[in-house]
Write a structure and sequence with these properties.
Distance between the termini: 85 Å
Radius of gyration: 21 Å
Strand order of the largest sheet: 1-2
Strand content: under 5%
Structural class: mainly alpha
Order of helices and strands: HHHHHHHHHEEH
Number of domains: 2
Number of helices: 10
Number of strands: 2
Shape: elongated
Bound molecules: zinc ion
Helix content: 40-55%
């Protein structure tokens, strides 16, 4: 009997993605959307793997945290980092989408999204968005109606900005550098009309 078949490989891929999403504490409906498993199947997996996670002391999501786009975009560090990784790992669709359920959810893209979130969380332990917030931002950028991804005007890093936003937009790193420089200029010996500190030798 031939056991190995593309269909089995796909079922395995589906299960592995579901396990990964459960580890990120994704909601049942989200896992169902991304894997194609039924809500009943996801709940059953959650009972099985969720218990193992609890026993392993996996961190649960705590506190309300930002749950809307404006709240997420108000943080410079959250506007930077995760979405750039999604582009590098090809988790983001090439064109804006209209209907996430129909156009966004594929197993491969789900795996790449998980990978981006895992790298992001490793790089920013304790300071990163949780998976729900990351998914909210990711979906909004993929749709491109309220926010889109642009490059930092100073260093070229990918940041997220409001589609109606005006003025210069920098990533958190360049913003901090600008602020530090401005603080130094304000308190230092600066010639009138110059934005940068001058050498006094
Ligand atoms: Zn920058």
């Amino acid at each position: 009997m031939r056991v190995w078949h593309p269909r089995y490989a796909r079922d395995l891929q589906r299960l592995h993605l579901a396990q990964r999403l459960i580890a990120h504490r994704a909601r049942t409906q989200v896992i169902s959307d991304w894997t194609g498993l039924s809500v009943v199947q996801v709940r059953s997996l959650y009972r099985q793997f969720g218990k193992e996670l609890d026993e392993g002391g996996a961190a649960r999501l705590r506190g309300p945290g930002p749950s809307s786009l404006p709240q997420l975009l108000s943080s410079k560090r959250w506007r930077t980092g995760f979405i750039g990784l999604c582009y590098v790992l090809e988790a983001m669709p090439h064109m804006p989408i209209q209907n996430p359920k129909r156009e966004l959810h594929t197993l491969t893209r789900g795996e790449r999204l998980c990978r981006a979130f895992e790298i992001y969380s490793t790089l920013m332990p304790g300071r990163s968005m949780n998976f729900h917030q990351a998914l909210l931002l990711y979906t909004a950028v993929a749709m491109g109606q309220e926010v889109h991804a642009v490059k930092c005007e100073t260093c070229g890093a990918v940041i997220v900005r409001d589609v109606l936003g005006i003025g210069r937009w920098n990533c958190g790193h360049c913003y901090r550098a600008d602020t530090t420089e401005m603080r130094f200029a304000t308190h230092g010996d600066v010639r009138k009309g110059h934005g940068r500190p001058q050498c006094t030798e």
